[in-house]
């Protein structure tokens, strides 16, 4: 482990965070604001984002500037537009936090013709990161943090490159055998593999890529998938962490002065952990990068 020569602190740094209007993202945004960070909230709903921004400004005297950027993370055009807006408005971006995520129990396609869970959970952070990467590199030191999950282990066969639109997982009989959950696991596996390959590509740039498992957290996640999903989440909440506990490692990765010399790592509870065997396959990670580049060229 290697320490940065100059004391790193999130105070005064500019942080872009997606999925910050609820759950883990909101808990992290509150803590980062209290620590003096300047925040750019990327959200889909203007009214909700404005309320969150007002709340963040009011929670403490250390809070920096709070800006709102609008984007639909299921639309590549929308992501490109918000990236252009960020680059136009902000001369500096120090930290990018890819936190927005979703799970869709039925197979849906985005306006780009991409399966929805894959588009929101993997392609959105992949595209946004690549669009902001040069601005991050300009700092000499910056961070990219992505919310992954222990759920990546549900993808027991790894990334199904032969079925990019997940027709097999949502068709009979896989749909009755947890196909949607396996797809979610694939996207979380993709988060870890993306981070590993990003870390490799960023060697020597000063930009550190990390991802983390927040644990089972009591949030509003999976509330739009019908009554059965809501009941399941209600039961799981009894065994869940608070959003604040779930955000603890995220805040640590953003604010800690203890950064590993090698990036591309996966964390839980303030320490590096080893993900699944599939997540450690660097050849597959390179292939995922190439496939993802093709998907965002659309």
UniProtKB/TrEMBL annotation:
Coiled coil: none
Keyword Oxidoreductase appears in the UniProt entry: yes
GO MF, any single term: oxidoreductase activity
Keywords, sorted A to Z: Oxidoreductase
Family matches, as PANTHER family: PHOSPHATIDYLINOSITOL-GLYCAN BIOSYNTHESIS CLASS F PROTEIN (PTHR43157:SF31), PHOSPHATIDYLINOSITOL-GLYCAN BIOSYNTHESIS CLASS F PROTEIN-RELATED (PTHR43157)
This protein's name: SDR family NAD(P)-dependent oxidoreductase
InterPro entries reported in the protein's UniProt record: NAD(P)-bd_dom_sf, SDR_fam
Pfam families: adh_short
Disulfide bond listed as a keyword: no
């Amino acid at each position: 482990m290697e320490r940065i020569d100059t004391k790193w602190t999130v105070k005064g740094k500019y942080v872009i965070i997606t999925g910050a209007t609820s759950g883990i993202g909101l808990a992290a945004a509150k803590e980062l604001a209290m620590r003096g960070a300047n925040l750019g909230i990327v959200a889909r709903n203007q009214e909700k984002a404005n309320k969150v921004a007002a709340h963040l400004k009011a929670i403490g005297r250390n809070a920096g500037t709070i800006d709102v950027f609008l984007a639909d993370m299921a639309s590549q055009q929308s992501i490109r537009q918000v990236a252009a807006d960020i680059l136009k408005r902000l001369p500096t971006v120090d930290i990018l936090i890819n936190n927005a995520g979703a799970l869709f129990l039925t197979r849906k396609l985005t306006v780009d013709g991409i399966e929805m869970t894959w588009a929101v959970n993997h392609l959105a952070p992949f595209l946004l990161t690549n669009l902001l990467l040069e601005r991050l590199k300009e700092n000499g030191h910056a961070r990219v943090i992505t919310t992954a999950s222990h759920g990546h282990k549900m993808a027991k066969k790894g990334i199904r490159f032969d079925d990019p639109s997940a027709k097999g997982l949502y068709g009979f009989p896989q749909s009755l055998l947890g196909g949607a959950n396996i797809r979610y696991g694939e996207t979380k596996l993709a988060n870890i593999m993306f981070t590993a390959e990003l870390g490799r590509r960023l060697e020597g740039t000063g930009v550190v890529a990390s991802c983390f498992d927040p644990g089972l957290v009591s949030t509003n996640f999976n509330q739009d998938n019908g009554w059965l999903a809501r009941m399941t989440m209600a039961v799981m909440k009894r065994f869940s962490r608070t959003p604040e506990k779930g955000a603890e490692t995220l805040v640590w990765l953003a604010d800690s002065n203890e950064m590993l010399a090698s990036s591309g790592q996966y964390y839980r509870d303030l320490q590096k952990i080893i993900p699944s065997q599939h997540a450690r396959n660097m050849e597959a990670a390179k292939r995922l990068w190439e496939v993802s580049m093709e998907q965002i060229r659309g």
